[in-house]
Design goal:
The protein has about 500 residues and is an alpha/beta fold. The protein has 18 helices and 17 strands.
Length: about 500
C-alpha cells in the first residue's frame, strides 16, 4: 500500500531542532510537511519532551548529538512512558558505531546524518505509518486474531549483523545483508520470502538442499511449496498428513524436529541423514516449516546470521499478512462480514450526516428472518452460527460496494443504502427477501428449513429527520409486519411534516 498525503495528514511529528544548525534542516522539514505529515518544530529539548508527555505524537525526531550524554536516559524514559510513540534519531556518521545501542534503548529508526536526500526521512516515516495503519485496521476488524506479534525492528541479532563492528570501533553496512534485505522487501508472498530466506541462509551455512512446507490448519497437513537444490519431480505433491501422527497436536509444530513423520519423509525421499527445521509463525498462526540439511556445526557467527535473517523474514511476513487482511476487508471485490450492531448504528449516523451534506437520500432496510418449523433460538449454537453466517454472506453478495450490512440481533439484519430513495429501497428489499427465501440450506446444514423474511423500509429525508428516527421508523413497521403477517416488505409512514431536510442545509 502506498502511503498517500491524505493518510499522512493523520500522523503528527515533533522535530527538535539542534542549538547549532546542521545541514539544511529547514528544507528537510519543509519536505516532510509537503509530503503531508503534521509537523511541530521545537527549539528546546526540555520543552519538546514536556509536550511529548502531555500530548503524545506519533513520531519524534531528535538529533543524538544535541542530547549528548543524556540521549540514552531520555530514550529509555520515552520508550517506557510512551510505547506507541516512535522515536527517530539523527546520528552523525562518525558515531555510527553506537547504532545497536540506540536501537536496543528503544529508537524506532536511526538515520545517519547528514542524509543523502530528504526523501530518506519521508520513506522512513512512511514505513512506520504504514505499519501503524495496518495494525490499527486489523485490531479494529478482528482484535482476537490480528494481534501483531512481530519482533521489533531493533532486534539485537539483526542489528549486530547489519552493522558489523571491527576492532577499531568503526562500522560499515554488510553488503550481502543489505542486498538480501532489499530483495526481501520486494517480495509479495510468504512462500517467496521463505524461499529467499533459505537461499540467503544456504549461502552462509553452505547447505545444498532445503524445503518450505506450507501448513494447512484445516487439514492439519504440510505441503512442500518451495524447494532449493531438489529435483522438481521429487517435490511435486510432496506433503505430510499430520493426522496420521499418533496423538498429534498443533503445538508440536513449535518443535518440528520432534515430528517422526517429517524425519521419515526427509530420509526416504531425499536421503538426508540429519536436518534442521524452524517454524514460521505469522500473527500468532503457523504459516509453515522451513527445513534444510544439517551440516557440521559452524561458528557462533553462523547462528547469529540465521537469527538475523529469520528476524527480518518474520517481520516482513507479518507485514505481508497484515496487508493481505487489510486488502481483503477494504478491496471493492471482497465479500465482507456484516458489522456488529454498535458499529452499524454508528455508521448509520455517519452516512446520514454525509447524506445531509451532499443532499442525497439514505435508505434503511431492517430484515427479520424466522424459521417455519423451529425457532431460531432452538437451533444448536453451531447451526445457528452457520445459518447467520450464510444469511450475512448472501446479503453482502447482493449488495453494492458502498452499502453497509450489519447484524442487529438474532435473525435480524440491517442494510444501509446510500444514494437510494424509498422507491428504489423497496425494490431492493423485495429482491433481498426473495433471495433469502430461495436459499437451499439442506446441502450445507443437513436439514430442510423454510425461511420467512420480512423487511421494514425507511428513508431520509422523506420519511425521517435524523438517524434515530430513521431506525425507529423502519423497526416500527417491521414490528407491525410481525403482527399482521410475515413474508412481506412494508414502507414506513411519514413521521414529520412535509418538506425536505435538504432545504436550507449546508
Amino acid at each position: 500500500m502506498d502511503i498517500t498525503a491524505q493518510l499522512r495528514r493523520a500522523f503528527t511529528l515533533y522535530y527538535v531542532q539542534p542549538e547549532t544548525p546542521v545541514g539544511d534542516q529547514d528544507f528537510l522539514m519543509a519536505s516532510v510537511q509537503n509530503a503531508g505529515y503534521q509537523v511541530d518544530i521545537f527549539t528546546d529539548v526540555l520543552e519538546a519532551l514536556q509536550a511529548v508527555v502531555q500530548n503524545p505524537p506519533h513520531f519524534v525526531i531528535l538529533h543524538a548529538s544535541e542530547m549528548r550524554e543524556k540521549t540514552a536516559a531520555w530514550l529509555a524514559e520515552l520508550s517506557a512512558q510512551l510505547p506507541e510513540t516512535q522515536i527517530f534519531l539523527f546520528l552523525n556518521r562518525e558515531q555510527s558505531y553506537q547504532l545497536p545501542s540506540f536501537y536496543a534503548l528503544g529508537a524506532y529508526e536511526v538515520l545517519l546524518w547528514p542524509l543523502d536526500q530528504s526523501i530518506q526521512l519521508v520513506r522512513a516515516l512512511d514505513r512506520a505509518a504504514e505499519k501503524n495503519y495496518w495494525m490499527h485496521l486489523n485490531e479494529s476488524k478482528d482484535s482476537s486474531q490480528a494481534v501483531v506479534s512481530s519482533q521489533s525492528s531493533g532486534d539485537p541479532a539483526f542489528l549486530e549483523m547489519l552493522y558489523k563492528l571491527d576492532m577499531g570501533g568503526e562500522s560499515h553496512l554488510d553488503p550481502f545483508l543489505v542486498s538480501w534485505l532489499r530483495d526481501l522487501y520486494r517480495l509479495k508472498s510468504i512462500e517467496d520470502s521463505s524461499e529467499h530466506f533459505l537461499k540467503g541462509l544456504g549461502s552462509k551455512e553452505n547447505f545444498s538442499q532445503a524445503l518450505y512446507l506450507k501448513y494447512y490448519p484445516a487439514r492439519r497437513s504440510l505441503l512442500a511449496t518451495k524447494a532449493i537444490g531438489v529435483p522438481s519431480h521429487l517435490v511435486q505433491g510432496l506433503g505430510l498428513d499430520l493426522t496420521q501422527e499418533k496423538d498429534f497436536s498443533p503445538d508440536q509444530l513449535d518443535r518440528p524436529e520432534e515430528i517422526p513423520l517429517l524425519g521419515e519423509m526427509l530420509t526416504q525421499v531425499f536421503s538426508w541423514e540429519d536436518y534442521e527445521a524452524q517454524t514460521l509463525e505469522v500473527l500468532g498462526q503457523v504459516a509453515g516449516v522451513l527445513v534444510w540439511q544439517k551440516e557440521e556445526t559452524g561458528p557462533s557467527s553462523e547462528r547469529l546470521w540465521r537469527e538475523a535473517l529469520f528476524s527480518a523474514l518474520h517481520q516482513h511476513c507479518e507485514l505481508l499478512e497484515m496487508h493481505r487482511r487489510w486488502y481483503k476487508v477494504h478491496s471493492s471485490g471482497a465479500v465482507q462480514e456484516p458489522v456488529e450492531r454498535p458499529v452499524f448504528l454508528q455508521l448509520m449516523v455517519d452516512e446520514l450526516r454525509r447524506a445531509r451534506r451532499i443532499q442525497m437520500p439514505l435508505s434503511l432496510l431492517v430484515l427479520s428472518v424466522e424459521l417455519d418449523q423451529v425457532g431460531m433460538s432452538s437451533l444448536s449454537s453451531r447451526d445457528r452460527e452457520l445459518l447467520l453466517r450464510l444469511l450475512g454472506k448472501a446479503l453482502r453478495e447482493q449488495s453494492r460496494v458502498n452499502d453497509v450490512v450489519g447484524k442487529l440481533g438474532l435473525g435480524e439484519f440491517g442494510v444501509l443504502l446510500p444514494h437510494t430513495g424509498v422507491q428504489g429501497a423497496a425494490i431492493k428489499a423485495e429482491r433481498l427477501r426473495r433471495r433469502l427465501e430461495a436459499m437451499d440450506l439442506k446441502s450445507v446444514m443437513g436439514s430442510v428449513f423454510t425461511l420467512r423474511v420480512s423487511v421494514g423500509v425507511s428513508e431520509y429525508p422523506s420519511l425521517s429527520q435524523d438517524a434515530e428516527e430513521l431506525f425507529q421508523s423502519a423497526d416500527a413497521v417491521l414490528y407491525k409486519l410481525r403482527t399482521q403477517g410475515l413474508n412481506r416488505v412494508c414502507v414506513a409512514e411519514v413521521q414529520r411534516p412535509e418538506g425536505s431536510a435538504f432545504e436550507g442545509s449546508v
